[in-house]
Protein backbone atom coordinates (compact mmCIF):
# COMPACT_ATOMS: atom_id res chain seq x y z
CA UNK A 1 0.00 0.00 0.00
CA UNK A 2 1.17 3.50 -0.80
CA UNK A 3 2.78 5.19 2.19
CA UNK A 4 3.51 8.85 2.87
CA UNK A 5 5.45 10.72 5.52
CA UNK A 6 3.11 13.33 6.98
CA UNK A 7 3.87 16.44 8.99
CA UNK A 8 2.95 15.44 12.57
CA UNK A 9 1.06 18.76 12.86
CA UNK A 10 -1.33 17.53 10.15
CA UNK A 11 -2.51 14.72 12.42
CA UNK A 12 -5.62 15.45 14.52
CA UNK A 13 -7.77 13.04 16.54
CA UNK A 14 -9.35 10.66 14.05
CA UNK A 15 -8.10 12.42 10.91
CA UNK A 16 -5.09 13.49 8.88
CA UNK A 17 -4.90 16.30 6.31
CA UNK A 18 -2.39 15.63 3.51
CA UNK A 19 -0.95 18.77 1.89
CA UNK A 20 1.89 19.65 -0.51
CA UNK A 21 3.40 17.43 -3.23
CA UNK A 22 1.74 14.29 -1.89
CA UNK A 23 -1.69 15.65 -2.90
CA UNK A 24 -0.61 15.70 -6.53
CA UNK A 25 0.86 12.20 -6.22
CA UNK A 26 -2.28 10.71 -4.65
CA UNK A 27 -4.77 12.57 -6.86
CA UNK A 28 -3.08 12.80 -10.25
CA UNK A 29 -0.32 10.21 -10.34
CA UNK A 30 -2.05 7.32 -8.56
CA UNK A 31 -5.54 8.64 -9.42
CA UNK A 32 -6.95 7.59 -6.09
CA UNK A 33 -10.52 8.45 -5.19
CA UNK A 34 -12.62 8.79 -2.05
CA UNK A 35 -12.78 5.45 -0.25
CA UNK A 36 -9.22 4.40 -1.27
CA UNK A 37 -6.69 3.67 1.45
CA UNK A 38 -3.20 5.01 2.17
CA UNK A 39 -0.71 4.60 4.98
CA UNK A 40 0.50 7.76 6.69
CA UNK A 41 3.63 7.79 8.84
CA UNK A 42 4.42 10.61 11.26
CA UNK A 43 8.17 10.06 10.82
CA UNK A 44 8.39 9.57 14.58
CA UNK A 45 7.65 5.88 14.74
CA UNK A 46 3.88 5.74 14.22
CA UNK A 47 1.91 4.56 11.16
CA UNK A 48 -1.74 5.36 10.41
CA UNK A 49 -3.95 3.27 8.15
CA UNK A 50 -6.43 5.72 6.60
CA UNK A 51 -9.31 6.09 4.13
CA UNK A 52 -9.56 9.08 1.78
CA UNK A 53 -12.64 11.14 2.71
CA UNK A 54 -12.34 14.23 0.52
CA UNK A 55 -9.97 15.29 -2.25
CA UNK A 56 -9.27 18.79 -3.55
CA UNK A 57 -6.31 20.20 -5.48
CA UNK A 58 -4.85 21.58 -2.25
CA UNK A 59 -5.52 18.95 0.36
CA UNK A 60 -6.76 15.47 1.00
CA UNK A 61 -8.65 14.59 4.15
CA UNK A 62 -8.09 11.08 5.48
CA UNK A 63 -10.02 9.25 8.20
CA UNK A 64 -7.77 7.25 10.55
CA UNK A 65 -8.92 3.61 10.64
CA UNK A 66 -6.11 2.22 12.79
CA UNK A 67 -2.78 3.16 14.30
CA UNK A 68 0.30 1.01 14.84
CA UNK A 69 4.02 1.42 15.47
CA UNK A 70 6.28 1.71 12.40
CA UNK A 71 8.28 -1.50 12.12
CA UNK A 72 11.06 -0.39 9.84
CA UNK A 73 13.69 0.97 12.23
CA UNK A 74 16.83 -0.98 13.08
CA UNK A 75 18.05 -0.91 16.68
CA UNK A 76 21.59 -0.14 15.54
CA UNK A 77 22.05 3.31 14.06
CA UNK A 78 24.50 3.39 11.17
CA UNK A 79 25.51 6.70 9.60
CA UNK A 80 27.00 6.36 6.12
CA UNK A 81 29.76 8.84 5.21
CA UNK A 82 30.38 8.56 1.50
CA UNK A 83 32.96 10.56 -0.43
CA UNK A 84 31.29 12.20 -3.43
CA UNK A 85 31.51 9.65 -6.24
CA UNK A 86 31.31 10.43 -9.96
CA UNK A 87 27.99 10.98 -11.73
CA UNK A 88 24.75 10.15 -9.96
CA UNK A 89 26.19 7.26 -7.99
CA UNK A 90 25.66 8.96 -4.63
CA UNK A 91 21.96 9.09 -5.45
CA UNK A 92 21.67 5.40 -5.58
CA UNK A 93 23.85 4.90 -2.52
CA UNK A 94 21.35 7.13 -0.70
CA UNK A 95 18.36 5.26 -2.10
CA UNK A 96 19.69 1.76 -1.47
CA UNK A 97 21.20 2.53 1.94
CA UNK A 98 17.88 4.04 3.05
CA UNK A 99 16.06 0.87 2.04
CA UNK A 100 18.63 -1.25 3.87
CA UNK A 101 18.24 0.83 7.06
CA UNK A 102 20.91 3.57 7.24
CA UNK A 103 20.26 6.10 10.00
CA UNK A 104 21.68 9.17 8.26
CA UNK A 105 24.21 10.34 5.67
CA UNK A 106 27.33 12.50 5.68
CA UNK A 107 28.59 13.20 2.15
CA UNK A 108 32.18 14.49 2.13
CA UNK A 109 35.06 15.52 -0.12
CA UNK A 110 38.53 14.08 0.49
CA UNK A 111 41.80 14.59 -1.43
CA UNK A 112 40.99 12.18 -4.22
CA UNK A 113 37.28 12.99 -4.63
CA UNK A 114 36.79 13.84 -8.29
CA UNK A 115 33.54 15.70 -7.73
CA UNK A 116 33.84 19.11 -6.05
CA UNK A 117 30.80 21.09 -4.96
CA UNK A 118 30.78 24.70 -3.78
CA UNK A 119 28.30 25.90 -1.16
CA UNK A 120 25.54 26.86 -3.60
CA UNK A 121 25.68 23.69 -5.71
CA UNK A 122 25.94 21.61 -2.59
CA UNK A 123 22.78 23.15 -1.06
CA UNK A 124 20.86 22.47 -4.28
CA UNK A 125 22.10 18.90 -4.44
CA UNK A 126 21.17 18.34 -0.83
CA UNK A 127 17.52 19.19 -1.51
CA UNK A 128 17.51 16.60 -4.30
CA UNK A 129 19.31 14.00 -2.14
CA UNK A 130 16.87 14.53 0.72
CA UNK A 131 13.92 13.99 -1.64
CA UNK A 132 15.44 10.72 -2.91
CA UNK A 133 15.90 9.55 0.68
CA UNK A 134 12.33 10.49 1.62
CA UNK A 135 10.89 8.52 -1.31
CA UNK A 136 13.08 5.51 -0.50
CA UNK A 137 12.04 5.70 3.17
CA UNK A 138 8.36 5.72 2.18
CA UNK A 139 8.75 2.85 -0.25
CA UNK A 140 10.77 0.67 2.12
CA UNK A 141 8.45 1.31 5.11
CA UNK A 142 10.99 3.11 7.25
CA UNK A 143 9.74 4.70 10.47
CA UNK A 144 11.48 8.01 9.79
CA UNK A 145 13.33 9.83 7.04
CA UNK A 146 17.14 9.59 7.34
CA UNK A 147 18.77 13.01 7.19
CA UNK A 148 21.40 13.94 4.61
CA UNK A 149 23.99 16.30 6.13
CA UNK A 150 25.82 19.16 4.45
CA UNK A 151 28.75 18.16 2.26
CA UNK A 152 31.72 18.08 4.64
CA UNK A 153 35.42 18.63 4.08
CA UNK A 154 37.68 15.80 5.25
CA UNK A 155 38.56 17.88 8.32
CA UNK A 156 34.87 18.51 8.96
CA UNK A 157 34.20 14.78 8.78
CA UNK A 158 37.04 13.99 11.23
CA UNK A 159 35.44 16.38 13.71
CA UNK A 160 32.26 14.30 13.64
CA UNK A 161 34.02 11.08 14.71
CA UNK A 162 33.66 11.66 18.49
CA UNK A 163 29.84 11.73 18.14
CA UNK A 164 29.84 7.98 17.36
CA UNK A 165 30.48 4.89 19.51
CA UNK A 166 32.57 3.44 16.72
CA UNK A 167 33.91 4.62 13.36
CA UNK A 168 34.76 2.02 10.69
CA UNK A 169 36.41 2.92 7.44
CA UNK A 170 36.70 0.74 4.37
CA UNK A 171 40.35 0.38 3.41
CA UNK A 172 41.44 -2.13 0.82
CA UNK A 173 45.13 -2.12 1.70
CA UNK A 174 45.07 -3.17 5.34
CA UNK A 175 42.83 -3.38 8.34
CA UNK A 176 40.89 -5.75 10.55
CA UNK A 177 38.39 -8.08 9.00
CA UNK A 178 34.81 -6.91 9.22
CA UNK A 179 33.71 -10.13 10.94
CA UNK A 180 36.32 -9.59 13.67
CA UNK A 181 35.36 -5.95 14.26
CA UNK A 182 31.65 -6.69 14.35
CA UNK A 183 32.06 -9.61 16.70
CA UNK A 184 33.69 -7.28 19.23
CA UNK A 185 31.31 -4.36 18.87
CA UNK A 186 27.85 -3.89 20.21
CA UNK A 187 27.98 -0.15 19.63
CA UNK A 188 24.64 1.44 19.04
CA UNK A 189 25.85 4.39 16.97
CA UNK A 190 28.21 3.50 14.15
CA UNK A 191 29.76 5.65 11.47
CA UNK A 192 31.00 3.93 8.30
CA UNK A 193 33.32 5.91 6.07
CA UNK A 194 33.91 5.01 2.43
CA UNK A 195 36.43 6.86 0.27
CA UNK A 196 36.28 8.03 -3.35
CA UNK A 197 37.15 6.03 -6.49
CA UNK A 198 40.88 6.63 -5.94
CA UNK A 199 40.77 5.67 -2.25
CA UNK A 200 42.15 7.56 0.74
CA UNK A 201 45.63 9.07 0.83
CA UNK A 202 48.07 7.71 3.40
CA UNK A 203 47.83 10.86 5.48
CA UNK A 204 44.02 10.63 5.49
CA UNK A 205 44.29 7.06 6.74
CA UNK A 206 46.66 8.20 9.49
CA UNK A 207 44.37 11.06 10.48
CA UNK A 208 41.33 8.80 10.60
CA UNK A 209 43.14 6.25 12.77
CA UNK A 210 44.45 9.03 15.06
CA UNK A 211 40.84 10.09 15.51
CA UNK A 212 39.92 6.56 16.63
CA UNK A 213 38.57 5.08 13.40
CA UNK A 214 39.11 1.38 12.71
CA UNK A 215 40.17 0.38 9.17
CA UNK A 216 38.28 -2.66 7.88
CA UNK A 217 38.88 -4.85 4.88
CA UNK A 218 35.96 -6.21 2.92
CA UNK A 219 37.70 -9.23 1.47
CA UNK A 220 39.87 -9.85 -1.58
CA UNK A 221 37.57 -8.36 -4.22
CA UNK A 222 37.87 -4.67 -5.02
CA UNK A 223 34.48 -3.02 -4.53
CA UNK A 224 33.60 0.21 -6.29
CA UNK A 225 33.15 3.37 -4.23
CA UNK A 226 29.38 3.06 -4.53
CA UNK A 227 29.22 -0.68 -3.80
CA UNK A 228 31.33 -0.69 -0.63
CA UNK A 229 28.91 1.32 1.59
CA UNK A 230 26.00 -0.95 0.65
CA UNK A 231 27.99 -4.12 1.28
CA UNK A 232 29.25 -2.77 4.61
CA UNK A 233 25.78 -1.69 5.68
CA UNK A 234 24.22 -5.04 4.68
CA UNK A 235 26.84 -6.94 6.68
CA UNK A 236 26.54 -4.71 9.76
CA UNK A 237 22.74 -4.91 9.81
CA UNK A 238 22.91 -8.68 9.22
CA UNK A 239 25.34 -9.02 12.10
CA UNK A 240 22.98 -7.07 14.38
CA UNK A 241 20.01 -9.30 13.43
CA UNK A 242 18.43 -6.58 11.33
CA UNK A 243 18.26 -8.46 8.04
CA UNK A 244 15.85 -11.04 9.46
CA UNK A 245 16.45 -13.00 12.67
CA UNK A 246 18.48 -12.54 15.80
CA UNK A 247 21.87 -10.84 16.24
CA UNK A 248 24.84 -13.12 15.65
CA UNK B 1 46.64 -1.68 -12.05
CA UNK B 2 44.56 -2.33 -15.15
CA UNK B 3 43.58 -5.95 -15.46
CA UNK B 4 42.32 -7.93 -18.45
CA UNK B 5 40.87 -11.38 -18.95
CA UNK B 6 42.90 -13.06 -21.66
CA UNK B 7 42.10 -16.08 -23.80
CA UNK B 8 44.23 -18.86 -22.24
CA UNK B 9 45.36 -19.79 -25.78
CA UNK B 10 47.08 -16.39 -26.04
CA UNK B 11 49.45 -17.33 -23.22
CA UNK B 12 52.78 -18.83 -24.25
CA UNK B 13 55.91 -19.47 -22.18
CA UNK B 14 57.12 -16.05 -21.02
CA UNK B 15 54.69 -14.00 -23.11
CA UNK B 16 51.07 -13.13 -23.75
CA UNK B 17 49.51 -11.69 -26.93
CA UNK B 18 46.53 -9.43 -26.29
CA UNK B 19 44.01 -9.26 -29.16
CA UNK B 20 40.49 -7.94 -29.76
CA UNK B 21 38.76 -5.04 -27.94
CA UNK B 22 41.38 -4.90 -25.19
CA UNK B 23 43.98 -3.67 -27.70
CA UNK B 24 41.88 -0.56 -28.36
CA UNK B 25 41.38 -0.03 -24.62
CA UNK B 26 45.07 -0.33 -23.75
CA UNK B 27 46.35 1.64 -26.78
CA UNK B 28 43.72 4.32 -27.34
CA UNK B 29 41.68 4.66 -24.16
CA UNK B 30 44.44 4.33 -21.56
CA UNK B 31 47.15 5.41 -24.03
CA UNK B 32 49.67 2.99 -22.63
CA UNK B 33 53.06 2.65 -24.23
CA UNK B 34 55.88 0.11 -24.38
CA UNK B 35 57.26 -0.42 -20.87
CA UNK B 36 53.89 0.05 -19.13
CA UNK B 37 52.49 -2.79 -17.03
CA UNK B 38 49.17 -4.61 -17.06
CA UNK B 39 47.76 -7.60 -15.23
CA UNK B 40 46.45 -10.45 -17.37
CA UNK B 41 44.16 -13.11 -15.94
CA UNK B 42 43.52 -16.42 -17.70
CA UNK B 43 40.02 -16.64 -16.20
CA UNK B 44 40.99 -20.00 -14.74
CA UNK B 45 42.51 -18.81 -11.50
CA UNK B 46 45.91 -17.49 -12.62
CA UNK B 47 47.12 -13.85 -12.87
CA UNK B 48 50.13 -12.63 -14.86
CA UNK B 49 51.99 -9.40 -14.16
CA UNK B 50 53.32 -8.22 -17.52
CA UNK B 51 55.19 -5.46 -19.34
CA UNK B 52 54.10 -4.20 -22.78
CA UNK B 53 56.79 -5.05 -25.34
CA UNK B 54 55.21 -4.09 -28.67
CA UNK B 55 51.98 -2.38 -29.63
CA UNK B 56 50.18 -2.46 -33.00
CA UNK B 57 46.54 -1.79 -33.91
CA UNK B 58 45.84 -5.50 -33.94
CA UNK B 59 47.79 -6.93 -31.04
CA UNK B 60 49.90 -6.13 -28.04
CA UNK B 61 52.75 -8.34 -27.00
CA UNK B 62 53.40 -8.57 -23.25
CA UNK B 63 56.37 -10.06 -21.43
CA UNK B 64 55.38 -12.07 -18.33
CA UNK B 65 57.27 -10.75 -15.27
CA UNK B 66 55.58 -12.87 -12.63
CA UNK B 67 52.71 -15.29 -12.16
CA UNK B 68 50.46 -15.76 -9.13
CA UNK B 69 47.10 -17.28 -8.27
CA UNK B 70 44.03 -15.01 -8.65
CA UNK B 71 42.81 -14.14 -5.19
CA UNK B 72 39.30 -12.99 -5.99
CA UNK B 73 37.27 -16.19 -5.87
CA UNK B 74 35.01 -17.02 -2.94
CA UNK B 75 34.91 -20.60 -1.75
CA UNK B 76 31.12 -20.57 -1.71
CA UNK B 77 29.51 -20.41 -5.15
CA UNK B 78 26.37 -18.30 -5.25
CA UNK B 79 24.27 -18.10 -8.41
CA UNK B 80 21.95 -15.10 -8.53
CA UNK B 81 18.58 -15.63 -10.26
CA UNK B 82 16.98 -12.25 -10.76
CA UNK B 83 13.59 -11.65 -12.33
CA UNK B 84 13.93 -9.05 -15.11
CA UNK B 85 13.46 -5.68 -13.40
CA UNK B 86 12.43 -2.46 -15.12
CA UNK B 87 14.90 -0.25 -17.02
CA UNK B 88 18.60 -0.97 -16.73
CA UNK B 89 18.44 -2.19 -13.16
CA UNK B 90 19.53 -5.70 -14.03
CA UNK B 91 22.72 -4.21 -15.44
CA UNK B 92 23.75 -2.83 -12.12
CA UNK B 93 22.70 -5.98 -10.27
CA UNK B 94 25.07 -7.83 -12.60
CA UNK B 95 27.87 -5.31 -12.09
CA UNK B 96 27.56 -5.07 -8.30
CA UNK B 97 26.96 -8.78 -7.73
CA UNK B 98 30.05 -9.58 -9.81
CA UNK B 99 32.14 -7.24 -7.65
CA UNK B 100 30.73 -8.82 -4.49
CA UNK B 101 31.57 -12.33 -5.72
CA UNK B 102 28.55 -13.94 -7.43
CA UNK B 103 29.40 -17.16 -9.26
CA UNK B 104 26.91 -16.84 -12.12
CA UNK B 105 23.56 -15.35 -13.13
CA UNK B 106 20.21 -16.72 -14.24
CA UNK B 107 17.84 -13.95 -15.39
CA UNK B 108 14.23 -15.11 -15.55
CA UNK B 109 10.67 -13.97 -16.23
CA UNK B 110 7.91 -14.82 -13.76
CA UNK B 111 4.18 -13.90 -13.79
CA UNK B 112 4.66 -10.40 -12.49
CA UNK B 113 7.82 -9.48 -14.41
CA UNK B 114 7.06 -6.26 -16.24
CA UNK B 115 9.85 -6.67 -18.78
CA UNK B 116 9.34 -9.36 -21.41
CA UNK B 117 12.05 -10.36 -23.85
CA UNK B 118 11.63 -12.59 -26.86
CA UNK B 119 14.43 -14.87 -28.03
CA UNK B 120 16.08 -12.32 -30.34
CA UNK B 121 16.04 -9.40 -27.91
CA UNK B 122 17.14 -11.67 -25.12
CA UNK B 123 20.18 -12.90 -27.06
CA UNK B 124 21.20 -9.30 -27.81
CA UNK B 125 20.79 -8.29 -24.19
CA UNK B 126 22.80 -11.25 -23.04
CA UNK B 127 25.82 -10.13 -25.06
CA UNK B 128 25.60 -6.72 -23.35
CA UNK B 129 25.11 -8.26 -19.89
CA UNK B 130 28.08 -10.56 -20.37
CA UNK B 131 30.28 -7.57 -21.30
CA UNK B 132 29.19 -5.68 -18.18
CA UNK B 133 30.04 -8.72 -16.06
CA UNK B 134 33.43 -9.14 -17.73
CA UNK B 135 34.35 -5.50 -17.05
CA UNK B 136 33.19 -5.75 -13.43
CA UNK B 137 35.18 -8.97 -12.99
CA UNK B 138 38.32 -7.29 -14.33
CA UNK B 139 37.88 -4.21 -12.16
CA UNK B 140 37.15 -6.14 -8.97
CA UNK B 141 40.03 -8.61 -9.50
CA UNK B 142 37.89 -11.70 -9.87
CA UNK B 143 39.64 -14.90 -10.89
CA UNK B 144 37.11 -15.71 -13.62
CA UNK B 145 34.21 -14.13 -15.46
CA UNK B 146 30.80 -15.16 -14.06
CA UNK B 147 28.49 -16.44 -16.79
CA UNK B 148 25.10 -14.92 -17.54
CA UNK B 149 22.63 -17.62 -18.58
CA UNK B 150 19.82 -17.39 -21.12
CA UNK B 151 16.67 -15.67 -19.90
CA UNK B 152 14.60 -18.47 -18.38
CA UNK B 153 10.87 -18.91 -17.96
CA UNK B 154 9.72 -19.58 -14.40
CA UNK B 155 9.33 -23.26 -15.30
CA UNK B 156 12.83 -23.25 -16.78
CA UNK B 157 14.19 -21.78 -13.56
CA UNK B 158 12.42 -24.38 -11.39
CA UNK B 159 14.10 -27.10 -13.45
CA UNK B 160 17.51 -25.70 -12.45
CA UNK B 161 16.88 -26.04 -8.70
CA UNK B 162 18.17 -29.64 -8.39
CA UNK B 163 21.62 -28.52 -9.64
CA UNK B 164 22.21 -26.61 -6.38
CA UNK B 165 22.88 -27.75 -2.81
CA UNK B 166 20.43 -25.14 -1.55
CA UNK B 167 17.96 -22.70 -3.11
CA UNK B 168 16.95 -19.59 -1.14
CA UNK B 169 14.29 -17.23 -2.32
CA UNK B 170 13.58 -13.76 -0.98
CA UNK B 171 9.98 -13.55 0.15
CA UNK B 172 8.76 -10.59 2.12
CA UNK B 173 5.54 -12.20 3.40
CA UNK B 174 6.88 -15.19 5.28
CA UNK B 175 9.90 -17.41 5.60
CA UNK B 176 12.84 -18.28 7.75
CA UNK B 177 15.22 -15.57 8.82
CA UNK B 178 18.37 -15.40 6.74
CA UNK B 179 20.59 -15.73 9.84
CA UNK B 180 18.83 -18.96 10.78
CA UNK B 181 19.11 -20.48 7.31
CA UNK B 182 22.76 -19.52 6.93
CA UNK B 183 23.69 -20.86 10.35
CA UNK B 184 22.39 -24.27 9.28
CA UNK B 185 23.89 -24.36 5.82
CA UNK B 186 27.40 -25.01 4.71
CA UNK B 187 26.32 -25.71 1.17
CA UNK B 188 28.93 -24.95 -1.42
CA UNK B 189 26.57 -24.25 -4.31
CA UNK B 190 23.75 -21.88 -3.51
CA UNK B 191 21.07 -20.39 -5.74
CA UNK B 192 19.36 -17.19 -4.58
CA UNK B 193 16.13 -16.26 -6.32
CA UNK B 194 14.71 -12.74 -6.22
CA UNK B 195 11.34 -11.86 -7.76
CA UNK B 196 10.18 -8.87 -9.79
CA UNK B 197 8.89 -5.52 -8.48
CA UNK B 198 5.43 -7.01 -7.82
CA UNK B 199 6.80 -10.08 -6.05
CA UNK B 200 6.00 -13.74 -6.62
CA UNK B 201 2.46 -15.05 -7.00
CA UNK B 202 1.22 -17.51 -4.39
CA UNK B 203 1.37 -20.37 -6.85
CA UNK B 204 4.97 -19.51 -7.74
CA UNK B 205 5.84 -19.59 -4.04
CA UNK B 206 4.18 -23.00 -3.71
CA UNK B 207 5.99 -24.33 -6.78
CA UNK B 208 9.34 -23.07 -5.52
CA UNK B 209 8.82 -24.65 -2.10
CA UNK B 210 7.66 -27.92 -3.71
CA UNK B 211 10.95 -27.91 -5.64
CA UNK B 212 12.89 -27.63 -2.36
CA UNK B 213 13.53 -23.86 -2.18
CA UNK B 214 13.62 -22.17 1.23
CA UNK B 215 11.81 -18.81 1.56
CA UNK B 216 13.86 -16.25 3.49
CA UNK B 217 12.90 -12.90 4.92
CA UNK B 218 15.35 -10.05 4.83
CA UNK B 219 13.94 -8.09 7.78
CA UNK B 220 11.16 -5.55 8.20
CA UNK B 221 12.23 -3.10 5.49
CA UNK B 222 10.93 -3.61 1.97
CA UNK B 223 13.88 -3.87 -0.40
CA UNK B 224 13.53 -3.09 -4.09
CA UNK B 225 13.84 -5.90 -6.62
CA UNK B 226 17.35 -4.72 -7.50
CA UNK B 227 18.51 -4.17 -3.89
CA UNK B 228 17.46 -7.54 -2.49
CA UNK B 229 19.91 -9.71 -4.48
CA UNK B 230 22.86 -7.51 -3.47
CA UNK B 231 21.86 -7.50 0.21
CA UNK B 232 21.35 -11.27 0.16
CA UNK B 233 24.66 -11.86 -1.58
CA UNK B 234 26.55 -9.55 0.83
CA UNK B 235 25.10 -11.35 3.85
CA UNK B 236 25.77 -14.83 2.47
CA UNK B 237 29.39 -14.00 1.57
CA UNK B 238 29.87 -12.29 4.95
CA UNK B 239 28.50 -15.35 6.72
CA UNK B 240 30.95 -17.58 4.79
CA UNK B 241 33.91 -15.36 5.75
CA UNK B 242 34.21 -13.97 2.24
CA UNK B 243 33.83 -10.28 3.12
CA UNK B 244 37.01 -10.24 5.16
CA UNK B 245 37.79 -12.71 7.94
CA UNK B 246 36.73 -16.20 8.87
CA UNK B 247 33.35 -17.87 8.40
CA UNK B 248 30.88 -17.23 11.24
What is shown here, in short?
The first copy, chain A, folds into two domains: 3-69, Beta Barrel (Ribosomal Protein L25, Chain P), CATH 2.40.240; 77-239, Alpha/beta knot. In chain A, 31% of the residues lie in helices and 28% in strands. Chain A is built from seven helices and 14 strands.
Description:
The structure is a homodimer of 248-residue chains. Chain A is α/β, with parallel strands linked by helices. Chain A has two domains: 67 residues, Hypothetical PUA domain-like, domain 1 (Ribosomal Protein L25, Chain P); 163 residues, Alpha/beta knot. Helices cover 31% and strands 28% of the residues of chain A. The first copy, chain A, contains seven helices and 14 strands. In chain A, strands 7, 8, 9, 10, 11, 12, 13 and 14 form an eight-stranded parallel sheet that branches. A six-stranded mixed sheet of chain A has the order 1-4-5-6-3-2. The longest helix of chain A is centred in the middle third of the chain and has 21 residues. The mean pLDDT of chain A is 91. The interface between A and B is large, with 41 and 41 residues. Chains A, B: Pfam families: Methyltrans_RNA (PF04452), PUA_4 (PF20260). Chains A, B: One of its GO terms (biological process) is rRNA base methylation. Chains A, B: It is found in: Cytoplasm. Chains A, B: It comes from Melghirimyces algeriensis. Chains A, B: Specifically methylates the N3 position of the uracil ring of uridine 1498 (m3U1498) in 16S rRNA. Acts on the fully assembled 30S ribosomal subunit.
Amino acid sequence: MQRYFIDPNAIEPGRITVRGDDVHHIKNVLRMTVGDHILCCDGQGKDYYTELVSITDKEILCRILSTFPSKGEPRVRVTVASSLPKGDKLEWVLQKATELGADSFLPFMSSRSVVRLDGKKSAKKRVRWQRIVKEAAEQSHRGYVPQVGNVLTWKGLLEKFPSYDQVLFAYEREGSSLVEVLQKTRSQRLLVVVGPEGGFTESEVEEAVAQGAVPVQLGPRILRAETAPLALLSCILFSFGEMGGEPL
